[in-house]
Specification:
There is one protein chain. By secondary structure, the chain is α+β, with helices and mostly antiparallel strands. It folds into 2 domains: 55 residues, no CATH class; 218 residues, Aromatic compound dioxygenase (Protocatechuate 3,4-Dioxygenase, subunit A, Sandwich). Helix 1 runs antiparallel to helix 2. The N and C termini lie far apart (47 Å). Bound molecules: benzoic acid and fe (iii) ion. Fe (iii) ion binds next to strand 7.
């Protein structure tokens, strides 16, 4: 393998990998090399740009740690996360649509009983969320595990306070609960607000250079798991949000944009007197039975 030129470099790299015993790895790497080379040819990549790209990826690596996943953010803002989500979550139209997981899910969030307050002191306007989980054929799904996580009034997740001088309780505005025998669930939390994705690093600089903003419309995250059904990772969005049509990570589905009802101060759905205005949201999640297909 000598005297490789710009025409023979692609087949040369493909030939060099041909003995790979892992069929899937070979498929993925063959396509990656072909598309990467096609990209470099398409834009006639110059050496200075190649150095810049390496510098950018190096910066992304330097910012990344257990708390800050800059590579996930990069995938999100390039639409790769949403592409992978959509092509892996094809299901019947009557099922609740999936959207991106995002970087703020954490394992080990606290368990709650129905009716409890997940905010755990997080700052925000009261919000009472209720709903039902059912299967595609209408059957209630009892004992489904529901993970919820969200931003506070300032648009921050609890995780983002980890480095602050006055950290609050370990877990705020996130928790895990289970559906009742009729598939219903309800909890108290706070009203999620729109927020910018972390943009003080290389991904933020890239968005800036591209004339893009970093904002996500207000939403509540859900991850629902029940035996016999495909897991569902999704959000519920607030319908009046100004960023619904320009979400920085392309995650909005019309079917997930809902009417969150505002109420004046008074008796809340849990029977308590609420001295300030509050919101309510009610939604029915529809899960796809395993093996149902599209
Ligand atoms: C989120 O919704 O939590 C999120 C998703 C993608 C990037 C940043 C945040
Ligand atoms: Fe979020």
């Amino acid at each position: 393998m000598r005297n490789i030129d710009e025409d023979t470099i692609t087949p040369a790299v493909l030939a060099a990998m041909a003995k790979c015993g892992n069929e899937r790895l070979l498929t993925v790497m063959n396509s990656l090399v072909r598309n990467l080379h096609a990209f470099a040819r398409d834009v006639r990549l110059i050496e200075e740009e190649w150095h810049q790209a390496i510098g950018f990826l190096t910066d992304v690596g330097h910012v990344t740690d257990d708390q800050r996943q800059e590579y996930v953010l990069l995938s999100d803002v390039l639409g790769l996360s949403m592409l992978v989500t959509t092509q892996n979550n094809r299901k019947p139209a009557a099922c609740t649509e999936a959207t991106v997981l995002g970087p703020f899910f954490v394992n080990g969030s606290p368990g709650y009983e129905n009716g409890e307050d997940l905010s755990n002191g997080a700052k925000g306007r009261p919000c009472f969320v209720s709903g039902r989980v059912r299967g595609l054929h209408g059957e209630p799904v009892a004992d489904a595990e529901i993970e919820v996580w969200q931003s506070d009034d300032d648009g921050f997740y609890d995780e983002q306070y980890a480095d602050s001088k006055e950290p609050g309780p370990a877990h705020q505005a996130r928790g895990r609960l289970h559906t009742l025998p009729d598939g219903r669930f309800h909890f108290r939390s706070i009203l999620p607000e729109a927020y910018p994705i972390p943009h003080d690093g290389p991904v933020g600089r890239m968005l800036d250079a591209l004339g893009r903003h970093p904002w996500r419309p207000a939403h509540l995250h859900f991850w629902i798991k029940a035996p016999g059904y495909e897991p569902l990772i999704t959000h519920l969005f607030r319908n009046e949000d100004q960023y619904l049509d320009s979400d920085a990570v392309f995650g909005v589905r019309s079917s997930l944009v809902l009417d969150w009802v505002e109420h004046p101060a008074g008796i809340a759905p849990d029977g308590t007197a609420t001295p300030s205005a509050f919101h309510t949201l009610d939604y029915e999640f529809v899960l796809n039975p395993i093996g149902q297909g599209q």
